[in-house]
Structures are given as C-alpha cells and as structure tokens.
Design the sequence.
C-alpha cells in the first residue's frame, strides 16, 4: 500500500509500505476513504528531528472495515466508520469518565507500531471502542463534515465544553484555523450570543462569521487585546478558547479574559512554561483548562446535526488532494494558501 511519512522538517513523502495485518484479536483493518492534514501536523513539519525510517503521518480518517479480529463485536466488514485521533477501549476508568485520550489501553496514530491515517489502509487497535459506524454511503456528500468528527470539530467542541460556554457567557476564540472556526460553531451551538474571533485571514474569518462569530479582531498582541477590551467595555470575555498553541496566543488569552473567567486551550502548546501567577491567573481568579480532546466522547452527540444538515463543519476543507499529493497539501497549509486539506486515497 501507499502511506505518508515525515523524515524531517518539510520532508513529507508518500511511499510504499507493508499492508497492515491483524496483530491482536481486538484489531481491525480499515481501508481509508477520506483523510486530511491537520494544523497540528504543521508542528512536526517545522521541527521534527531528521530520521532515516520516517514517521507515519495522519490521525483523522474515515474508512471501510476490511477485516476484524476475533474479539471485535458491533462491527462488520463493509461498515463505513470514523476513527477518533486517539484509539481507546472506551471501557477503562478514564474512558468511562469521558477522557478517552487517557485510555489505559489506548494510544495515538503513527506511534508504537501503529500506522497513520494518511494512507490507503491502517490497523486499528481497540477497534470496538474506537470506531464509530456511520449511517451513510461511501459516496455521501456528508463525508467531509463527518470527517471533522475525527478531530477538529470535536476539538473545537471540547474547548467550548471545558470552558463551560452557555447562553450567559461571552466568548473570545483565538485562531482562525479549522479548530478555531469550529470552536466558534461549537460556542454558538452551546448558546453563546457574543463571540469574538481573533484572526487575520478574511476568507477564514468570513467563514467564522457564518459559523456564528459576532465580531472579528484582526489585530494581534497588545493591540488585539486592547480591541477586545474595547468591545467588552474594558472587561474582557467570560471565556477564551485558545486554538493556536503558541505563547503569543496564550498571552493574548490572559489579556482578554474577564476576572473569574476561563481560558480553555486546545491548541497543542509549543511551550512548557507560561505565566500563571498572581498578576496573570491567580489574582483575577482565572481558571485554566483544556487539553487533547477526547473526541470519541463527543461523536454520538455531534453527529445528528451533521446528518440533519443543521451544521456543516466540513466547510473548513477548502482543498482536496490525492494521496500522492499529500506533500503539496502540507505546503499549502504551511503557506496559508489552504485552510484544511482533504485527502482522497
């Protein structure tokens, strides 16, 4: 089969790889129908150490079940399924508490001998707990939106849920990538009436307005903080959903959050130390939350609105490439000429 590997910064290759095979009775083999490039894939694209063997890439995919291990129930060959970006048994104590990204028997694609999703096929560990059957055909027009359940929609929703967004709360979303835009959509779904989107790419922020943003702030840093404060009578917003991951975004979050408010981070942090002392979080009673989204916990909740056509999160995809052209997809996203790239193996 063909699969995507990253060998170093900017070095993405699509190569021949061994076909995946069942290794455990809890495994499944899935033929991938749709995959995509994630904004978080750009972090290793910039700084992954050079290696000779390459790292399997891709953690978002839809596919068709081709083989099932002897202990997998609830699935059949031929089922169209979506896979969260973390696999899990969905039965351990952490899974039952809704944190499948901390599953005792789980893990992440492209690690520990498990392949990535930017490929023609993949072995799925803990298939029964991981895969969710989709009630549509393989050629459904809903596939792009259903693919967002694998990561970016669930991640945006996680940001809003962890921030306890509700009709009473005002919201600032930092970042106009796919996760930030779907955090806007999620905040609107949870009832927020005032949503300020901080982003500087007009085509993206226009989509953010379609998803529910009431205001757009293109400025960054202190200028951006001042603009949000001005829009909120100097107070800031009750919640801040940070979907970027850089220190500059965290500093803006601290700058625009209202006393007693919540900063919810879902952008993968590219730093280990950040201000949390009296002058930043402690003094104004700010709550800091967020983390890797347990999207498996949200799939059943979010899918019905996609199936009914009430929401269309798949609008974040603005370019489609064949598997052979995945390196071009990375370049397009890195150069900001594409918001999110859909892959059709």
Sequence:
């Amino acid at each position: 089969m063909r699969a995507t590997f990253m060998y170093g910064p900017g070095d993405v290759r699509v190569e021949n790889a061994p076909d995946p095979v069942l290794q455990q009775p809890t495994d499944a083999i899935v033929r991938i129908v749709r995959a995509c490039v994630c904004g978080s894939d750009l972090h290793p694209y910039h700084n992954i150490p050079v290696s000779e063997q390459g790292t399997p890439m891709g953690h978002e995919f839809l596919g068709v079940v081709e083989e099932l291990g002897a202990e997998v129930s609830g699935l059949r060959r031929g089922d169209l399924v979506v896979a969260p970006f973390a696999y899990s048994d969905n039965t351990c104590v952490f899974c039952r508490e809704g944190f499948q990204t901390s599953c005792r028997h789980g893990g992440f694609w492209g690690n520990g001998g498990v392949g990535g999703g930017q490929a023609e096929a993949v072995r799925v560990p803990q298939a029964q707990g991981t895969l969710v059957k989709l009630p549509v055909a393989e050629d459904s027009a809903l596939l792009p939106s259903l693919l967002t359940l694998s990561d970016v929609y669930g991640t945006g929703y996680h940001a809003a849920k962890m921030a306890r967004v509700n009709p009473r709360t005002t919201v600032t979303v930092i970042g106009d990538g796919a996760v930030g835009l779907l955090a806007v959509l999620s905040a609107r779904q949870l009832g927020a009436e005032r949503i300020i989107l901080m982003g500087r790419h007009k085509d993206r922020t226009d989509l953010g307005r379609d998803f529910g943003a009431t205001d757009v702030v293109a400025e960054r840093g202190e200028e951006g903080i001042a603009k949000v404060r001005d829009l909120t009578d100097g107070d800031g917003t009750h919640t801040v959903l940070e979907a970027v991951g850089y220190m500059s975004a965290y500093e803006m979050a601290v700058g625009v959050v209202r006393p007693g408010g919540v900063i919810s981070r879902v952008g993968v942090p590219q730093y280990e130390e950040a201000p949390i002392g009296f002058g930043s979080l402690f003094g104004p009673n700010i709550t800091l939350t967020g983390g890797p989204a347990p999207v498996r916990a949200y799939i059943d909740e979010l899918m019905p609105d996609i199936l009914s056509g009430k929401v269309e999160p798949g609008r974040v995809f603005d370019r489609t490439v064949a598997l052979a052209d995945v390196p071009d997809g990375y370049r397009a996203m890195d150069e900001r000429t594409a918001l999110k790239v859909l892959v059709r193996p």
Notes: The radius of gyration is 20 Å. The chain has a mean pLDDT of 97. Residues 129 and 267 are 25 Å apart (CA to CA). The chain is about 30% helix and 25% strand.
